[in-house]
Amino acid sequence: MKRSIPKIKDFKAPAGYFDQLPDQILEKTKPTRSIQWMNYAAAVAIFLVSFAVWQLNDSNPRLEEVSMDEEVSLYIESQYWSAEDVLGMVDNPEQILDEIIAEEMVFEVDAELEEEMIWY
Prior knowledge:
Blueprint: H1 17-29, H2 33-56, H3 68-77, H4 83-89, H5 93-117
């Protein structure tokens, strides 16, 4: 059962094959000019879009300047502070209460005057 392996004739490369091989490989892998400028154009476009998004995106909203009275009112309205907390922070709470009462009285008088001026 012994098989005999046929003898292979010596293989010889064509003359100058290995001298020309690197040039042939480089010629096949050389990128074309049209693809190269498209790569640069794509890179520039990505840069411009990224720059525009970065400039137009305002991640730090500008804070409005609010007076102290408005700020205190915002804290009270949001129920972060109660009226008692605010009165506890001041030196003279009676004066603030008197101012609040005076403001409410003005609003009540204005409302009564408007009701009197309405003629049916």
